[in-house]
Design a protein that fits this description.
The chain has about 190 residues and is mainly alpha-helical. The C terminus is likely disordered. Helices cover about 75% and strands about 0% of the residues. It has seven helices and no strands. The termini are far apart.
Amino acid sequence: MQIIFYLLAALVVFLSVKSITNASKIINSILAFLWFWMGIVYHLLYFSQVNKAAYLFGIIFIIQGLLFLYEGVFNNKLSYNFTRGLFGVSGAVLVVFALVLYPVIGYTFGHIYPSSPTFGLPCPTTIFTFGIFLWSDKRLPVTILVIPFLWSLIGFFAALKLGIFEDTGLLIAGLFTFTMIITQANRKVKYSAI
């Protein structure tokens, strides 16, 4: 599945850069799939054997997948387009961190594949999601931000207890993305009121 996850991530990046019909619907479908996978396979099937709270996490991740389908595929409220501004470059940094730097940092801490957290699991995939959020060319509904942001807090502290120090990037990505998007939304509201 690791190869499939990376191919899906590459497709999301490609569709965010190229102007293709229905690109955002495909991106949101892929993001929904990733969040469903993490909710069902990782949390409900595997992590629940370690921690019973994983049942709750699984349901919350499934809800996030449904939000991507509802807001992004059916209502067309989520669309993405990479630009070279602050948001575009910041999003690219988070995407590269999730896909490349996260496993490299993990390797330096002794987290070696296949026992290391990799893309397709909650923390690196949430960082990737934040990067894609920063490429949004529409105002993001707050509902789509809540679960990834809360996971950036919960996941960071849980991972820290497990010695997964590369998840410091999760907390930074969550705080940074949430602040950037809320600040941008507030600025737009101020300017539209003038």
